[in-house]
Structure formats: structure tokens, C-alpha cells
Amino acid sequence: MAFITRALRPLSRSTPTARLTTRRLASIRPVQSAYAFSTTPRRREVDLSELTPTPISLLTETESMMADMVSKFATEQIGPKVRDMDEAEAMDASVVEGLFEQGIMGIEIPEEFGGAGMNFTAAIVAIEELARIDPSVSVMADVHNTLVNTAIMKYGDAQAHRTWLPKLSTNTVGSFCLSEPVSGSDAFALQTKAEKTADGYKINGSKMWITNAMESGIYIVFANLNPSAGYKGITAFIVEKGTPGFSIAKKEKKLGIRASSTCVLNFDDVEIPKSNLLGEEGKGYKIAIEILNEGRIGIAAQMTGLALGAWENAARYVWNDRKQFGKLVGEFQGMQHQMAQAYTEIAAARALVYNAARKKEAGQEFVKDAAMAKLYASQVAGRVSGSAVEWMGGMGFVREGIAEKMFRDSKIGAIYEGTSNIQLQTIAKMLQKEYTN
Ligand SMILES: Cc1cc2nc3c(=O)[nH]c(=O)nc-3n(C[C@H](O)[C@H](O)[C@H](O)COP(=O)(O)OP(=O)(O)OC[C@H]3O[C@@H](n4cnc5c(N)ncnc54)[C@H](O)[C@@H]3O)c2cc1C
């Protein structure tokens, strides 16, 4: 098995040699991860005898090719559009098309359904590379791959796979609709109701903060089919755009990730067939928990990529362009120490992200690792992107480059897919369990 060493991306990196299309990606067989990592005392409970520990920053050849392909696509195709998309608060349709063309929207979907048939870490590196250029595009791919595609692959039956996966891998964006006006951190207090009809189900209620809502054609919607059973009535359904009674009520205007659409959705007697049930009735809460546990690693990757993108942007400026007192400002030790500290934190965040991803792939317990990765990566993204603005002085503060945008974009990492307090709660709960006699 060939491995390619991958340190943090250098400032001026070599251009990847080939543009990988979906077909090309699909032809590359994923190399099974041969290693697992553990940071907890529980390591001794897992049989690691067959595993060869390797540095955590090593990627398989396939993953490395994915990183290079996405990096090239993001730099060349997305980069020139980032500022305009942020100002317009809209995603350029050509970017969405490009994501599908490059195979980035079906990374883990099996080849038989038009996907690339790759592994979770390949999706994670793609999300990271996109965020290095634009965290808005990154979250589109993140929600689509790690929440929507994963939920349908994991909980959909053969019919659901045949119906939805070819669309999701080739031309239809997906949304994951859990939050509501009354239910955010307390997600299972949701009020959207479902009832059975002769042919299927009828959904009534509202969803809030739904990422990709403007661009999506497929929405996974959590609604309570049996409110008297509490959270055990929550059920997952698939609703298609255009279904009578479904509407986008409002598009939010936001602080950051402004090109990513975030909308309120209304469901007014939305009737769907039986086949649009995802998983089992009453198991929606389990689906939401399990999918979000994995999804969090994606947000951690987004924040790591954002931090690196902000750092690199400032590094180029201070080490190449800006002179004061007769020197490049990046030559002052006061600047260099801050930049070294920030780079070290990015590397630490990335290690947490890859560790969580590898543990998930190895079938190990990863929930605490995912929460730690998201918590820490979002903190690093906030710190590094804030410092990067300062390192660039006035040029960091104006809306010409990406410095101020990365800073604004970083804030969302501590909010969606579980706020930082909720991550801390998860980590503490699991630690307490581990350390209670
Ligand atoms: C841009 C954006 C995109 C989003 N995309 C999606 C999406 O695609 N799908 C979706 O379903 N949702 C989405 N969300 C919703 C997101 O997941 C929620 O905003 C998040 O879970 C927090 O919920 P809330 O906003 O209601 O905050 P609240 O839950 O009201 O929290 C407010 C504050 O209280 C704190 N808090 C709450 N409970 C506790 C507790 N028990 N202990 C300590 N502190 C606590 C929180 O940490 C926070 O600081 C998105 C949100 C945003 C802003």
C-alpha cells in the first residue's frame, strides 16, 4: 500500500498534475485504512494487534489524490468567485455544478449509484480543502456528503438507495432539516408533526436554519409521528422540492458563510409516499444523533481548512508584500512567534480531526474524539483568523481580500452541529463515565 506524506500544505504548493473527474475518482479504489488511533484508556479494549501505527498526517494515495484534486478545483474555480459570492450572499450555480462534475458531492456513495466509492477520510480532506478557499462552499459539500448522503446510505433500504443516491451523486443537492424555531440545542423538542395517511405521511410544521435550502432538491426532514411518545416518536422522512405545501419561507442574512443559504422552511400538509420514510418509524432521533456524531468531524475539518486558509493568506502578505521599517513585516520576531504558534494550533486541530475520522473508519468509539475535534478546531479557526486580520493590518480589515471574511466565517464553527457548550457537555459526560468507578 502506497502512502504519500502530507504535511500541512506549504504556502506555494505544487499544482496537482491531473484534474480528476467523477469517472476518474470512481475508478480509484479506496485503500482500506490499516490503522486506528486511540487517545483514551479504552485503547486496551480494542484488538489492535493487526494494526501498524503510522503518523496521523499520512493519507492513502487515494485520499491524497482527492486532496490535490479538490485543492486545484477550489483554487482555480472557486477562488476567483469567493468575494463576489460573499457580497451577493449567494452561491454561484457554476460552483455547485463544478462540485458535482468533480465528484465531490458523492464521495462515499458507491460507484454503482454514480458516486466515487471512497472512504470517510476522503470526504474529510475534501471538506478541509474547500474551506481553505471558501468555508461556504465547504459547508455545502459537508452537509450534502456527511449528513444527507450518509443518512440515506446508512438508513435507506435498497429502493431508497436506487431512488436517491444517483441524484445526490450527480445533480441534486441535499439538506438535513432538524432545527426549528423552538428547538436548537434541545433538538428533540421539535414540533413538526407527521401523521399517517392512506398512501404515506402528511407533514406539518416549520424548520429553521436549513443549510443548502435554496439549492437543494432533497430534504431529510425530522418530524414527530407520535408526540405522546416524546422523542421516540421522531421519524425521518425525505421530502422533494416542489412537493405541494413545501416552501422556503425566508433566507437568513448572516454574519459569515454568507454564500451558503440558510433558510426557514414551511411544511403545510406536505404529503409524501410511504417510500419516503427513511429508516424506521420512531427511530429518527437515533438517526439524527448518529449522523450528527459523524458530521461533527466534517465541521471540524471545515474549521481546520478555514484556519489554514486564513493563515496562508496572511503569511503570503507578511513574507512577500508588506514592508515597514525597511523590512518585510513577517521578519519581525513578534510576528513570527505568533505565526508559529498559530500554525502549531492548526496542526493540532488537524491531528484531532484525522484521529476522529480514522477511529470512525476503524469502527472504534469516536464520539468524544469528534466532539473534541469540533470544539478545538472551531476555537483555533476563531483565533487564527482573528490574528490573521491583525497581521495584515488595515489590509486585513477591508473587504478586498479574504482575511476579514475568514474571520466572520469562523464564528459558525462554535454554533452549528452542536454549539461549543454542547460539545463540552458530550466530552465531559463521556469522561465522567470513563472515570467513574
Ligand atoms: C448558519 C447556520 C446553519 C445551520 N444549518 C443547519 C442545518 O442545515 N440543519 C439543521 O437542522 N440545523 C442547522 N443549524 C442550526 C444549528 O444546529 C443550531 O443553531 C444550533 O444547534 C444551536 O441552536 P440554537 O441556535 O437554537 O441555540 P440555542 O440552543 O438556543 O443556544 C443558545 C446558547 O445556549 C447554550 N446552551 C443551550 N443549551 C445548553 C446546555 N444544555 N448547556 C449549556 N449551554 C447551553 C448554547 O451553547 C448557546 O450558547 C444551522 C445554524 C446556523 C446558524
From TrEMBL:
Main enzyme class: oxidoreductase
SUPFAM superfamilies reported for this sequence: Acyl-CoA dehydrogenase C-terminal domain-like, Acyl-CoA dehydrogenase NM domain-like
Gene3D superfamilies: Acyl-CoA dehydrogenase/oxidase, N-terminal domain, Butyryl-CoA Dehydrogenase, subunit A, domain 2, Butyryl-CoA Dehydrogenase, subunit A, domain 3
Cellular localisation: Mitochondrion matrix
UniProt KW keywords: Acetylation, FAD, Fatty acid metabolism, Flavoprotein, Lipid metabolism, Mitochondrion, Oxidoreductase, Phosphoprotein, Transit peptide
Domain Acyl-CoA oxidase/dehydrogenase middle, residue spans: 175-270
Any Pfam family hit: Acyl-CoA_dh_N
Acyl-CoA dehydrogenase/oxidase C-terminal domain sequence ranges: 282-430
Family (UniProt): Belongs to the acyl-CoA dehydrogenase family.
Assembly mode: Homotetramer.
Protein name: Short/branched chain specific acyl-CoA dehydrogenase, mitochondrial
Organism name: Penicillium oxalicum (strain 114-2 / CGMCC 5302)
